[in-house]
Write a structure and sequence with these properties.
The complex is a heterodimer of chains A (138) and B (132). With 138 residues, chain A is α/β, with parallel strands linked by helices. In chain A, 24% of the residues lie in helices and 39% in strands. Chain B is elongated and about 75 Å long. The chains are: A alpha/beta (138), B mainly alpha (132).
């Protein structure tokens, strides 16, 4: 049977911009950054949170021959609309996390708000991907 | 190769602003500025991207938040109206009725009283309910 979840694909608009955001702003560590010249300069770029194995593969939406131009543009648009899924994080102190990220210029769509399960806040990565961070109730 | 930033990303920034700052006197012109789109094009572009006008999007967010406050607090309808960024109780009641099919007061009555749902520690409740 399946053993572990290792990587989760996150479509990003600009891999350099995403790398800077996830590492410098959010505190992820770089795991892999490999560009394969013989595969149309495909760049395998992964980051993970320190202490957690699972990584995010920050991938650019490929053009032909993987996706035709129309499909690629459609995915790019969905990401930009915030409609391409999202990432959910936990934190010990959501107010502190909010202040830290806000001071680094992160775009928040929701400030920390009390919910039945805890307190959470919503923000975006530069590409438009939805991110949420929650301080869960005991 | 990086393609130009899709217009939708700028429109999403405007939508996020509506989500984040609905309590403030936001208007469509402010949202248009956040999207770097001229006000003349903004409403049409927003609607094409998200299926409703920015005005409608903002109003719906405010009404949803008002509904939550009606369910979860015992604050007055007028107070709730103001706290979600709306200024006229009359038009709040009308818009609320269109979305929820009943008045704010009826909506509140149709839900269990907030005091039943609030997690007030029992020892606190008992202390305040003590007779003397």
């Amino acid at each position: 049977m399946l053993k572990q979840l290792t990587n989760v694909n996150v479509w990003v608009h600009d891999q350099d911009e995403a790398l800077a955001f996830y590492t410098e702003t959010l505190g992820f560590e770089l795991r892999d950054d490999v560009t394969v010249a013989e595969m149309g300069n495909f760049r395998w770029l992964t980051v993970g949170l320190p202490g957690q194995d699972v990584a995010l593969a920050l991938l650019a939406v490929p053009g032909p021959p993987v996706f035709d131009d129309e499909t690629r543009a459609a995915i790019d648009t969905l990401v930009a609309k915030g409609a391409a899924g999202g990432l959910f994080f936990s934190t010990d102190d959501v107010h502190k996390t909010y202040e830290e990220l806000k001071s680094k210029g992160v775009e928040f769509s929701q400030e920390p708000t009390q919910q039945p399960y805890g307190i959470d806040a919503g923000f975006r990565d530069p590409s438009g991907n939805q991110m949420r961070v929650a301080q869960l109730s005991e | 190769m990086v393609t130009p930033v899709p217009t939708a990303r700028h429109l999403l920034r405007a939508r996020d602003l509506a989500d984040a700052r609905y309590r403030e006197p936001l208007d469509v012109a402010t949202l248009a500025r956040a999207a770097h789109v001229s006000p003349a094009h903004f409403t049409r572009e927003f609607r094409r991207a998200f299926g409703e006008t920015p005005h409608r999007y903002l109003l719906t967010r405010r009404l949803e938040r008002a509904a939550a406050l009606l369910r979860n607090t015992d604050r007055s309808v007028a107070d709730i109206c103001l706290s979600v960024g709306l200024t006229s109780v009359g038009s709040f009641t009308t818009s609320f009725g269109k979305l929820y099919g009943m008045s704010p007061t009826a909506y509140r009555a149709a839900h269990p009283p907030a005091s039943n749902r609030a997690r007030i520690p029992t020892c606190v409740l008992q202390a305040y309910a003590r007779r003397h």
